[in-house]
Design brief:
Blueprint (H helix, E strand, L loop, with lengths): L1 H21 L4 H30 L2
Length: 58
């Protein structure tokens, strides 16, 4: 559940940067979005592994 909380925090951060990038054209916000999206990908993979391990251990 800790990793899922991190996912929610990352999404909240991305929500703040999206208008800065798309509406205001802030390039640094775009960089932060790209990094956060990569972090989300890694977390999602980790969560998938944990869920599979837990499911298969029953």
């Amino acid at each position: 559940m800790e990793k899922f909380e991190k996912v929610k925090e990352l999404i909240a951060d991305i929500e703040k940067d999206m208008p800065k990038f798309y509406d205001a054209g802030n390039g640094a916000a775009g960089t932060r979005i790209r990094k956060a999206m990569q972090d989300l990908k890694v977390l999602a993979t980790d969560i998938r592994k944990e869920v599979t391990e837990k499911k298969n251990s029953k």
